[in-house]
Design a protein that fits this description.
There is one protein chain. This protein is mainly alpha-helical. The protein has a single domain, classed as Helix Hairpins (Orthogonal Bundle), CATH 1.10.287.370. 82% of the residues lie in helices and 8% in strands. The protein starts with a helix and ends with a helix.
């Protein structure tokens, strides 16, 4: 019985660790998305202060290419919409992984309690 509980503890512990690693990766991804979102918001604010006489350039590799102002604004808006969608998707992953993490944590506590109960009578005898 103790051997079975020990194996369950190891398996559940490994599962919990994997969930924690996945959670860490998703948190990193969300932070990167937030940084991209902030950067694009700043670009959008800068575009708002442009006049029709201003020229917009796009960096493609090592070269600056002249770009239409309206096209550049639309590109930034599209990028912001995409990033918003990705943030929403990642937040869903965070919620899901958080729930899985809590479930595994409860399972670990139950297994550890069962192991302790199983070991108490043996050490008392």
């Amino acid at each position: 019985m103790a051997l079975v509980l020990q194996e369950r503890l190891q398996t559940t512990s490994a599962d919990f660790q994997k969930i924690q690693n996945d959670l860490s990766l998703v948190v990193d991804a969300r932070q990167k998305l937030e940084a991209q979102f902030s950067e694009n918001e700043l670009v959008k604010k800068e575009f708002a202060s442009l006049t029709a006489d201003n020229t917009v350039y796009k960096l493609i590799g090592p070269v600056l290419i002249k770009q239409d102002q309206m096209e550049a604004k639309q590109n930034v808006d599209t990028r912001l919409d995409f990033i918003r969608g990705e943030i929403k998707r990642v937040e869903g992953q965070l919620k899901d992984l958080g729930e899985k993490s809590e479930t595994k944590k409860l399972q670990l506590v139950e297994i550890q309690a069962a192991l302790q109960q199983h070991q108490q009578p043996t050490s008392a005898a």
